[in-house]
């Protein structure tokens, strides 16, 4: 990092810098340090907010549990197409909770201020739009929509109704990602050129082979309502409880997992999205009737913009990883790499000296002895001792405190927006710009061709 870049880095860092770096000089970063990031508490419970949840599956129960940790929030109603989920709601939260199979009955209640939409992906747009039309604030799980055209309808509805609308990719509210963004914008890894991420699994539940309740039947489950406008098929509880495995109802690996990585990248860099997407993959292990792949690799070309340089991103998910799985996200720059975890990150820096060096795997060793001596004299005259120092290497890690939950911060941001009118951290436009490249990944995979994307207009070119 040049002196100019170093001054820019110090100038751009703010907020948590003093607490993280301490009183010592920046030069102290040349050795490894671990820093605990402290979230800012900003909860106001002056106004009670009453919520309903539509879709009481894994995410629905998790979201409600998290939302109720925010002071002043009360859970009053739930909608789901399976009676067993509604019975579980009353078992956990009490018999006074209003439950229904028809989400419209929930939206018609005047005592509900906000709804969580945690249904299968193909229902996100319809329920979100209906809820905003009814004057409800909406917290919609990711991906925001299943189809790109649906995303534009959600955006238009939010802009017209002025409803508070937030997409549920909680990572963008993380104190860790906020600090990562500051350090990226300060130039700490130099010029970004490559992003690579993988999220691999080798587990039946991780591959969406979710448990199916023994009482699932046409009497306990409204399968026809679940199908919505998709092709009519005979009653099949596997499709209902393992909907992520089917193109008709879900968005596969890209919509479930890539969208998290894309959201985080866009938050850190300020990017609007790539200009080209190409995907490949296969169905390797989980041949259980699903019609989506269990291995996907995608390449995203991001053009140079005012916010960032041109770079390439490669994402991979492998549900047939015989090593047992694992994940990482790496932003690689010319002076360092930022390695992201879920609530932590690490910056490893490798700053080259200005002098190129000589010897090693080099033509210098082919010179005669006299020519080597002449070369060294000229080299030493050209470069100062400072310029000839070896590459500068450092490593620093940053993590949220133990027990920190970014989903809770995401809900705090959502309810803050309802109470104060401040912008949400992940609005409908951000949601489509994250979902769009993920949806294009599916399109590219099934078409077997690269696709161009207009990130500004959010549409396929």
Automatic annotation (TrEMBL):
A Pfam match: GFO_IDH_MocA_C3
Domain GFO/IDH/MocA-like oxidoreductase: 241-338
Single Gene Ontology MF annotation: nucleotide binding
Domain Gfo/Idh/MocA-like oxidoreductase N-terminal: 49-168
Protein name: Gfo/Idh/MocA family oxidoreductase
Species assigned in the record: Chitinophaga tropicalis
């Amino acid at each position: 990092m040049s002196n100019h870049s170093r001054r820019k880095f110090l100038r751009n860092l703010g907020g948590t810098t003093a607490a993280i770096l301490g009183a010592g000089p920046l030069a102290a970063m040349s050795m490894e340090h671990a820093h605990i990031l402290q979230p800012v508490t900003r909860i106001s419970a002056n106004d009670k907010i009453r919520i309903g949840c539509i879709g009481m599956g894994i995410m629905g129960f998790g979201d409600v549990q998290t939302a109720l940790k925010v002071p002043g929030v009360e859970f009053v109603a739930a909608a789901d197409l399976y009676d067993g989920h509604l019975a579980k709601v009353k078992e956990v939260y009490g018999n006074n909770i209003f439950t229904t199979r028809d989400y419209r009955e929930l939206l018609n209640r005047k005592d509900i201020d906000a709804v969580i939409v945690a249904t299968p992906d193909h229902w996100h747009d319809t329920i979100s739009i209906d809820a905003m039309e009814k004057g409800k604030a909406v917290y919609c799980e990711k991906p925001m929509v299943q189809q790109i055209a649906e995303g534009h309808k959600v955006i238009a509805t939010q802009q017209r109704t002025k409803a508070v609308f937030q997409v549920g990719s909680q990572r963008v509210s993380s104190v860790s990602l906020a600090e990562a963004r500051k350090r990226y914008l300060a130039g700490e890894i130099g010029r970004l050129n490559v992003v690579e991420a993988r999220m691999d699994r080798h587990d039946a539940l991780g591959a969406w082979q979710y448990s199916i309740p023994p009482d699932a039947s046409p009497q306990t489950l409204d399968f026809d309502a679940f199908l919505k406008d998709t092709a009519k098929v005979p009653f099949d509880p596997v499709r209902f409880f393992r909907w992520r495995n089917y193109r008709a109802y879900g968005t596969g690996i890209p919509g479930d997992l890539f969208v998290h990585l894309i959201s985080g990248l866009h938050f850190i860099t300020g990017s609007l999205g790539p200009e080209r997407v190409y995907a490949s993959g296969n169905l390797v292990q989980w041949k259980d009737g699903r019609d989506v792949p269990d291995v996907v690799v995608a390449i995203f070309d991001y053009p140079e913009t005012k916010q960032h340089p041109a770079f390439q991103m490669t994402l991979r998910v492998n549900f047939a990883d015989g090593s047992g799985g694992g994940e990482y996200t790496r932003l690689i720059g010319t002076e360092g790499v930022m390695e992201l975890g879920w609530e932590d990150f690490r910056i490893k820096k490798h700053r080259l000296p200005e002098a190129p060096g000589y010897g090693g795997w080099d033509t210098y060793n082919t010179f005669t002895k006299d020519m080597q001596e002449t070369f060294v004299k000229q080299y030493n005259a050209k470069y100062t001792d400072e310029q000839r120092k070896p590459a500068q290497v450092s490593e620093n890690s940053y993590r949220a405190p133990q027990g920190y939950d970014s989903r809770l911060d995401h809900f705090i941001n959502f309810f803050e927006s309802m109470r104060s009118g401040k912008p949400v951290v992940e609005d409908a436009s951000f949601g489509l710009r994250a979902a769009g490249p993920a949806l294009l990944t599916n399109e590219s995979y099934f078409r077997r061709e690269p696709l161009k994307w207009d990130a500004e207009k959010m549409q396929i070119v």
